[in-house]
Amino acid sequence: MPMPALRRALAATAAAVGALALGLTAGPAQATEPLNYAALGDSYSAASGILPVDLGSPLCLRSTANYPHVIAARTGARLTDVTCGAAQTKDFTESQYPGVAPQADAVTADTDLVTLTIGGNDNGTFINAVLACGTAGVLSGGKGSPCADKYGTSFDDQIDASTYPALKTALSGVRAKAPRARVAVLGYPWITPATADPSCFARLPIASGDVPYLHSLQAHLNAVVRRAAEETGASYVDLAAASTGHDACQAAGTRWIEPLLFGQNVVPVHPNALGERRMAEHALGALGLG
């Protein structure tokens, strides 16, 4: 190559390298802002009964190992956790306990992500059904379906008549406060298997015929939660398939839900730490986060 052409080629190469270096060193890359994350919901979101306890709100029996904390740790989100044991939909707009603000107060126009479980405590659905069926199961020695025989469709009727409209109102209120946020409503993981397991009676004293009755009741509640979520523009995180085989009748290390008797949590018939981690993982997957 003639010398003038060689000099021009070298100069062009040097200029290109210089421009690349300038582009790489002109300034730091813009860091992604962390998500503003508000966690709402009841004891399944608060992880009531799991240690360590969040001492910032002892009345709520909230754990720092709940699924919102797992999600925040995986995503680097700025978490505002107002989950509270025994919360109902009304507690989104009312104070649940003295000194405990309405949960929806944690949601603002700057909120990017909201997660929650809610509805199971409205009408006392979970606690009333479990206690009623547990009592009936003990009295029947685990035989028959005394709970279903006595209560029939009453729990389901309350879910349709009261819980469903309350869910829509609560979720609509959250959407109105944070119209740009992603709102994820988690279904409740299975408490009972779909069919009776005689070996479970000592831990979950439900009569054999009432095990599918409670399972069906929970499926109905989850279906109503899904419907309310979809009708208000929220995402529904379906845990039905994922939690199959991890109900309260399973062995420790497999179950996500602790049984009524001889469990490992202070609060029975609630998720354990494994269950909370799995709830977080499925929510992250459904939302494409983490």
Care to describe what's here?
The chain has 290 residues and is of the alpha/beta class. The chain has helices at residues 3-25, 43-46, 67-75, 125-140, 146-151, 154-177, 211-231, 240-243, 273-287, and strands at 36-39, 78-81, 113-116, 182-186, 235-237. It has a single domain (34-287), classed as Rossmann fold, CATH 3.40.50.1110. The protein contains nine helices and five strands; from the N terminus they run H-E-H-H-E-E-H-H-H-E-H-E-H-H. It has a five-stranded parallel beta sheet, sandwiched between helices. Helix 3 (67-75) crosses helix 9 (273-287) and helix 6 (154-177) packs parallel to helix 7. The protein is globular and about 60 Å long. It starts with a helix and ends with a helix. Residues 1-29 have low confidence and may be disordered.
Strand order of the largest sheet: 2-1-3-4-5
Text of the CATH class: Alpha Beta
The helix fraction, in percent, is: 40-55%
Euclidean distance between termini CA atoms: 55 Å
* CATH topology type: Rossmann fold
- The rough form would be described as globular
Oligomeric assembly: single chain
Major sheet size, sense and barrel closure: 5 strands, parallel
**Helix-strand makeup class:** alpha/beta
Number of strands: 5
Order of helices and strands: HEHHEEHHHEHEHH
Radius of gyration: 25 Å
**Percent range for β-strand residues:** 5-15%
Known CATH architecture: 3-Layer(aba) Sandwich
CATH homologous superfamily, by name? Answer: SGNH hydrolase
Count of DSSP-assigned helices: 9
Average per-residue pLDDT, rounded, comes to 91
**Stretches where pLDDT falls below 50 for ≥5 residues?**
1-29
- How many domains make up the coordinates? 1
